[in-house]
């Protein structure tokens, strides 16, 4: 259905992993992918940006128990030597995160020890500060879990995402702020991040440009991503403190 038929006020945080319209990611193609297990009731995606630090969404509630990061996982039904499970020692939520409109939806997690980097596990570059992503850019998103309302999978899924104009998300979502948010996912192609992909990466030309944040309750694109380039000064300052 066309986006014009949807309520512009509808949005939901993208918990409980699901990539709609995607395909299975090939082995070792996304070594920066992290699965964040929050207590016994929650999970999010994450992005390995330093050997001991994962970037994710601030709305992933970290007050529900112990937090563990899984790295090197392609299929959760096939445990292997490539897996690394590391406990999170500390997390830093952006001080201006707003849980009502998901503004400043970004958080850093420091693990108890550095990951072992190999063909399965690796970091991904961050963008330059305040350098915009051009509408029309071809990017991709990835995550684990459901691919539809009644379809589940434990294999890492990926989907192409076209960067859209800010106007498209501003017309669709009352809370969209182009200075700190990024709009991606063509309304004419049913491929999108969805519930549970929160914290996962929007990757463009080998650089992580966005963090899965929120979107349509029924998974209709476009979705809203945290615009990482806006937060590079905060990320760098926080990384120094975490060191």
TrEMBL record:
Highest taxon, organism lineage: Eukaryota
Single GO biological process annotation from the record: proteolysis
Keyword Cell inner membrane: no
Keywords: Disulfide bond, Hydrolase, Protease, Serine protease, Signal, Zymogen
Listed GO MF terms: serine-type endopeptidase activity
SMART domains (alphabetical): Tryp_SPc
Protein name (record): Duodenase-1-like
Lineage of source species: Eukaryota, Metazoa, Chordata, Craniata, Vertebrata
